[in-house]
Amino acid sequence: MLSKTNNRAKIRSKIASSFIFALFSLCFAGHPISIDGVFDDWDQVPITYSDAESDALGADFSTLKISYDNEFIFIYFDFFQGEFLMQDWNEFHLYIDSDNNDSTGFYVNGIGAELKWNFGSRSGYAYLDNQQIEIYQNDLSLRIAPTITSSQFEIAISRNSFPLTDYESQTVNNFRIFISEFDLDGDFIPEEAGGILFSIGEDFVPQAEPILIDRVNEDDIRLVSYNTWNEGILDSERQNQFKRILQALDPDVILLQEHSDWDQIDNIIQSWFPNEVWHASWTYGDLVVLSRFPIINDAFMNSERTMVALLYTEDELGKNLLVFNSHLSCCDNNEDRQKQVDQFAAEWRDWRINGLGPFEIDYGTPFVHVGDFNFVGYRQQVETIRIGDIEDEAQYGNDFLPDWDSTAIIDLFLRHTDIRMGYTWRKDASSFNPGKLDYVFYSDATIDTGKHYILNTLCMDGSTLIDYGLQLNDTQEASDHLPLIFDISKDENLDIKEEHVFSKKSMLDHSYPNPFNAKIHIVLSLLTSSVFELSIIDLKGAKIRTLHKGKKSKGMYQFKWDGRDEIGNYVVSGIYFILIKTEQMRESQKIILIK
């Protein structure tokens, strides 16, 4: 393999001699891509370019895919290793030659780019009519997911944005693309000069199937989580927008962030729904819960960034519902935000396992955790909430899986009602592109989902707006955050019974060494003769290896795992789980493989 230095020299030699090697991938069918941080929809898109591994000192690009629909050009790329933050902390550059003419625009690596975008600085330039025009995210309708660190990203850029259409004087049909790190000094795609030529076909990609606002079942319990920005409901200039939004959604529980006066809000909500009796929690910080169900108890968690309320829902769910409402530290304050999620995870661990919480809850209480989490930095913060992976174990204690059946809780990915987008925050005047700051986490061991979505009136058609008494600009004018809607339905098969979860006595003893490199020893104690399955699963719950499936007599047993999957291939370093399942219970234990 040629070194990166030799590759650069070779490429510059090609450019100097005007020998342009043009890669191309003609695509005559677009794809319905959702920009939400879930990448399954890219499986149907062929790879446009594969880069060589270990050919870079910094970020090491792996694959590139390109597609489109009627509004956006979609770009996907990933890395061989490492995680990056796309809206900060990087020097990734994107160049697009929108007219496929290297004599116009900014000449770079064999293309004439009308668009140069620097992801890390959240700014760029349009090169039109021999002018360099500074541009920002809203000039491109730029959409990027995820908003946290990742090894893969998906990007949408409007086909009608002025840098690509030269102020609507042309249509983007055939264009060339070039991506690099550190301008021209890092890894780039493609390695060859001339960029990648991509053609947009004349096909029509169907629009997203609209998600109707109404519940699937009338008796579903509807939660709305909403950062209403700076006391929004109390602002007389925005109050009508909030009134129309909440009346259209018709929630049973409203969890608000950025509110500091529960009494006034309670009175306002009550006036909007005069035929129902509403209950309000105390305000904790800037957090409040309003509910059609009586509030049995509420409290502030020790991190002082999360409140919790227990709602009387026994008639509807068979158990009372526990709701957590969070508003974590904003923006670049990653250190405090990690402390807050560590502290929450530790407090929930002690509450769930030992009953050491702010008030008493029953075993198997259904719970939902929502709010404005401000996750705009490290992915670790999401994982701490989702899988109980505490970063500072010296201060906050051991990791634990947070659901009642000792598994991860669900990080729910919601979509806008009428477009394939998953962002929850948007401020067009900001340099930051729209992102997912608000989350819904829930216990799938105790509750099942009904309808769930993000309300964005800007993307709804006129007749739907009229049907629900909404106006086009309602969500945009009300807040920079969008409301998240989560319906809970009752599923008898998910009802938690104490005897069907875990016995108080653990079957998995201490596995060693952990972390491990070559082999881990798994010690198992059976109190009675049992039929069980012992397996290794990854963070997504996918089975990696089955170590035992069958019956064993009462006693202690030792199993070993050498880091290989079912077909004998060694897996990558990372976090895995030992999972044991019987007909009556299941138990898991986190292990770390380090190579």
Which properties best describe this structure?
single chain; 595 residues; alpha+beta; Immunoglobulin-like; Deoxyribonuclease I, Chain A; eight-stranded mixed β-sheet; six-stranded mixed β-sheet; 11 helices; 15% helix; 31% strand
- How many helices does DSSP assign? 11
* Average pLDDT rating: 90
CATH level 1 class label of the largest domain: Alpha Beta
Radius of gyration: 26 Å
Assign a percent range to the helix content: 10-25%
CATH homologous superfamily of the largest domain? Endonuclease/exonuclease/phosphatase
Terminal CA distance: 24 Å
Shape: globular
Q: Look up the CATH topology of the largest domain.
A: Deoxyribonuclease I, Chain A
What portion of the residues fall into strands of 2 or more residues?
25-35%
- Pairing-aware structural class of the strands and helices? alpha+beta
What summary fits the major beta sheet?
8 strands, mixed
Structure summary, number of beta strands: 33
Word description of this protein:
- By secondary structure, the protein is an alpha+beta fold.
- The chain folds into three domains: 4-200, Immunoglobulin-like (Sandwich); 221-494, Deoxyribonuclease I, Chain A (4-Layer Sandwich); 503-593, Immunoglobulin-like.
- The chain has eleven helices and 33 strands.
- The strands form seven sheets. Strands 1, 5, 8, 9, 10, 13, 14 and 15 form an eight-stranded mixed sheet that branches. Strands 18-19-17-16-27-26 form a six-stranded mixed sheet, covered by helices on one side. Strands 20-21-22-23-25-24 form a six-stranded mixed sheet, with helices on one face.
- The protein starts with a helix and ends with a strand.
- The relative contact order is 0.10.
